[in-house]
Amino acid sequence: MLVVLAFIIVFHITSIVLLFISTIHNTWWVGDNFYVDIWKVCENVTLTEKCVDIGSSNKSFQAIQTIQATMILATILCCIGLFSFVLQLFRLKKGERFVLTAIIQMLSCLSVVIAASVYTALHEEFHKDLALPNGRYGYSFILAWIAFAFTLSNSIMYLILRKRK
Fold first, then answer.
1. 142-153 burial, b if ≥16 CB within 10 A, otherwise e?
2. pLDDT digits over 113-155, tens only?
3. Cβ contacts of residue 156 below 8 Å, gap of 6+?
4. Is 56 exposed, middle or buried (0-12, 13-18, 19+ CB in 10 A)?
5. CA atoms within 13 A on the CB side of 66
6. What CA–CA distance (Å, rounded) separates 98 from 130?
7. What angle do CA 141, 142, 146 make, to 5 degrees?
8. Is there a contact between 129 and 36 (Cβ–Cβ < 8 Å)?
9. Mind listing the pLDDT tens digit for each residue in 33-44?
10. Which pTM does this prediction carry?
């Protein structure tokens, strides 16, 4: 049982790290001389990097704010989930444990999937508004989808672990 708990803690911490990287790092959309995240647009021009915040003048600004808010919410909920897991581990009786943690992880999972789905649906319009050349999805975007899978499987593990004695 201790091995299962240790695995779940490591899996949960991995989810938190993935969420932090995908929220903070600036590689949601990349090209030859630019990279874009949910916060700013950076261009490499003659060995200098010019970064501009995504402003409210952009037509897709509300969608970007939705992505920003849900990614931050997912990261916060995942951290709260780890904290509640540790508290529930020592405070509740067997059979009652980890229900709150599973719910918090499900909400974190929902937040990540909303952010990644909105970005997937609106990335063409968003990048057209920024007048960026063709690019490809960056690793932060891919990490957001992986974080979705991790938080979903982690919440399912908490529900299964609730029934173990």
1. ebbbbbbebbbe
2. 999 999 888 877 777 766 676 788 889 999 999 999 999 999 8
3. 102
4. exposed
5. 15
6. 44
7. 120
8. no
9. 888 888 888 888
10. 0.86
